[in-house]
Design goal:
Structural class: mainly alpha
Helix content: over 70%
Distance between the termini: 77 Å
Oligomer: single chain
Largest sheet: none
Length: 133
């Protein structure tokens, strides 16, 4: 059995370990914030904003960092397919639990709602692409 003094001692040691981790995380976040600002400024002025063509791998990195190519449309399509498949799987899980009302509700309305949400997001992407020209 534990006596009260040993319980207090173990609680204090746990608190000191947690406090040490919290200090480490706080210090790490401060250092990371400063380094990220410095890196952003250096990369922007020395690499992204630099005039002239860069070829090869670094040219692709420059295009990526300067948003020459946009990937949001492809990502939205991929997430749409994944969301639809997920909704279908959750509908099947509802059927396994013999909740057939949820099964039909999810199977019929789920993909429609997902489609509407992603079409709404794609409208903004298409507007952006059309306004670019």
């Amino acid at each position: 059995m534990y006596d009260f003094q040993s319980l207090v001692s173990s609680a204090n040691s746990l608190i000191s370990v947690a406090d040490g981790r919290a200090n480490f995380v706080t210090n790490w976040l401060i250092v990371g914030s400063v380094l990220s600002v410095v890196a952003a400024i250096l990369l922007f002025f020395l690499f992204v904003n630099k005039k002239g063509a860069v070829k090869g791998f670094w040219g692709k990195v420059k295009d990526f960092l300067s948003f020459k190519d946009m990937y949001i449309e492809s990502l939205l399509k991929m997430f749409y397919i994944g969301s639809t498949v997920y909704i279908i799987f959750t509908a099947v899980a509802s059927a396994v639990y013999a909740d057939f009302q949820s099964f039909f509700f999810e199977l019929l309305l789920g993909p429609i709602v997902i489609r509407l949400a992603y079409e709404f997001a794609m409208v903004f992407v298409k507007m952006w692409k059309n306004s670019e020209k």
